[in-house]
Each structure stands twice: as C-alpha cells, then as structure tokens.
Amino acid sequence: MLKAFARDLRVGTPAARQRAARRAYSLGVAQAAVPAVLVGLVQAAQGGAALPLGSRVAVAVLAAGLAAAAYVLARRSARRADVPAAQAALTAAFQSASVPGVPLLMAGAFVPTWGLVLALLVLAALAHGVVWRSLAGWVRPAGEGQPG
After folding, report:
1. What is residue 148's predicted lDDT score, i.e. its pLDDT?
2. How many CB atoms lie within 10 A of CB 31?
3. Low-confidence ranges of the chain (pLDDT < 50)
4. pTM, whole model, 2 decimals?
C-alpha cells in the first residue's frame, strides 16, 4: 500500500493525487479501527452494565458532534491556498480519518451497550461515505487556488 501511495505522489496527476488521498484516508481509518476492535474485545470480555437511554443519546450526539468538527477541520485543510495542492489534499485526507474514526473508537468503548454500538457503527459508516465522496473534491491541480 505504501509503495502505491508513493508512486501516486510521484506521478502528480489529479487522478493519482486522488488515489493517494484515498489511500492516506484508508490508512488513517485502519489506524482507528484496530484500537477500536481491541478495546471492544476487552470491554466484551469484562462485561458491564448497559447505559440508560439518556446517556446513550448523549454519547451518540457527542460522537456526531466530534465527527462533524473533524470534517470541518479536514475540509478547511483541503481549502488552504497557502500550501501546495498535494500537501493540502493529503493533510485533509489524513485528518478526515478522524471523522469515522471517532464513532468507531467510541463504539469499541461502549461494547456492552449493543444498541449504542450499532448506532455508532451506522454513524461511522455514514461519516465514511461523506468523507469518501468529499476526497475527490479536495484534490486540486497543482498551482490552483481553493477547490470548489
């Protein structure tokens, strides 16, 4: 994966930069998913009490808010005109891995509460879809100003 990533960066075409951005994003999501699974396994082994409904709603809202904030920051990084286009796209791609990563990590932490885990996984899947579609718009040709 890293060889393909480096090759795409060297090519420098918009399509290659988009592939590199998607690879960077995928690597970042994998780095969040692995600890989430490990934490979930530990939580499942320990067992635990389920959260009351109000607490589950608060956790889901917190996860959605943090994911939204991560998306805004990644989008802001992609639009920076004071850095090279490739750097802006890759920075945004790495940062955007937090968008689905936050709900994934929180899902692992709340494993005994399966309804909440399902809600957080659905949130992570939706966040992944939004970021995946956004990555193409965040890659701009070299020398161009802000993406559209």
Report:
1. 47
2. 12
3. 147-148
4. 0.87
The per-residue pLDDT for 144 is 56
Express each pLDDT in 121-130 by its tens digit.
999 999 999 9
Q: b vs e for 77-99, b when ≥16 Cβ sit within 10 Å of the residue's Cβ?
A: bbbeeeeebbebbbbbbbbbbbb
- The residue type found at 53 is L
Contacts of 92 (CB under 8 A, 6+ apart): 21, 74, 75, 77, 78, 135, 138
Q: What are the sequence ranges of the domains in the chain?
A: 2-138
Residue 9 CA to residue 22 CA, distance in Å, equals 12
| Calpha distance 128→47 (Å, rounded) | 29
CA quadruple 5, 6, 8, 10: dihedral, nearest 10: 170
How many of the other CB atoms lie within 10 Å of CB of 70?
A: 20
